[in-house]
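for the recovery benchmark. C-alpha cells below, seq after
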C-alpha cells in the first residue's frame, strides 16, 4: 500500500510539473496596458500598476510580447515592461531568459484566445475583423470611417442645398411682393393724377383754371411743344 501511494504521488508530480513550468512570476515596471493581443493596436483590457505581480503564461518567439495573468484576467504585455527574477536579480523578460525562467514559447490566435477570455467584451463583436490582424482591422475601419464621412458630407450637402433652395424661394417671393407693392403704388398715383380737376372731362386747362395740385408743366396757348 505504501509503495502504491508513492507511485501515485510521483505520477501526480509528473502531471503537475509541466503545469508548474508553464508560468513564471514577473513584475510590471510601469503603469502598463494589458491588451487583447500582442500589439499596442489591440484593445486594452486592463491597466497593470507599476510594481504589480503578474504570472507570465508564455511569450512569443518572434516578438517580445508575453501572455500574462493579472488578478484573474488574461492579456498581453510587452516584455520591455515586465521583469522577472533570474539568479537573484531582476531582468527584463526576453527570449534569452524564456528557457531559464521556465517560460514556454506560445503562439497567438484571436479566435481561440478571445473565445476563452473576452466573450463579454464589446470588441468581441468584431472578432472576425480583428482575426485578420490589427493592421487589417484599422485599415478596414479607416475605409468605413471614410465612407461614413462621405455619406455624412453628402447628406450635409443635401441639407445645405435644400436650405439654399428654400432661401431662394423666400427671396423670390419677397421680391415679387415688392414688385406688386410698387405696381399698386404706381396705379394709385396714376388714379390720383387722373382725378385732378383739370383732367376731368378731357384735356387739362391749367392756364385758365389753375389748381394747386396741377403739374408744374403747363401748356400755354400757342406753345408749339404742346399738342392739340
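predicted aa per position
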Amino acid at each position: 500500500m505504501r509503495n502504491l501511494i508513492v507511485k501515485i504521488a510521483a505520477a501526480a508530480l509528473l502531471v503537475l510539473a509541466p503545469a508548474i513550468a508553464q508560468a513564471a512570476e514577473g513584475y510590471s515596471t510601469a503603469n502598463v496596458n494589458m491588451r487583447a493581443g500582442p500589439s499596442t493596436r489591440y484593445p486594452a483590457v486592463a491597466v497593470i500598476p507599476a510594481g504589480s505581480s503578474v504570472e507570465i503564461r508564455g511569450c512569443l518567439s518572434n516578438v517580445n510580447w508575453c501572455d500574462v495573468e493579472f488578478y484573474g484576467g488574461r492579456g498581453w504585455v510587452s516584455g520591455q515592461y515586465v521583469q522577472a527574477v533570474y539568479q537573484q536579480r531582476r531582468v527584463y523578460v526576453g527570449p534569452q531568459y524564456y528557457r531559464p525562467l521556465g517560460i514556454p514559447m506560445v503562439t497567438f490566435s484571436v479566435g481561440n484566445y478571445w473565445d476563452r477570455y473576452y466573450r463579454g467584451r464589446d470588441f468581441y463583436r468584431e472578432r472576425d475583423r480583428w482575426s485578420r490582424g490589427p493592421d487589417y482591422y484599422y485599415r478596414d475601419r479607416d475605409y468605413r470611417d471614410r465612407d461614413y464621412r462621405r455619406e455624412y458630407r453628402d447628406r450635409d450637402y443635401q441639407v445645405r442645398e435644400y436650405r439654399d433652395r428654400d432661401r431662394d424661394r423666400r427671396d423670390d417671393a419677397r421680391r415679387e411682393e415688392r414688385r406688386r407693392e410698387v405696381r399698386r403704388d404706381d396705379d394709385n398715383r396714376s388714379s390720383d393724377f387722373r382725378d385732378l380737376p383739370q383732367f376731368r372731362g378731357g384735356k387739362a386747362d391749367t392756364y385758365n383754371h389753375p389748381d394747386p395740385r396741377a403739374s408744374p408743366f403747363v401748356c400755354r396757348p400757342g406753345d408749339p411743344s404742346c399738342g392739340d
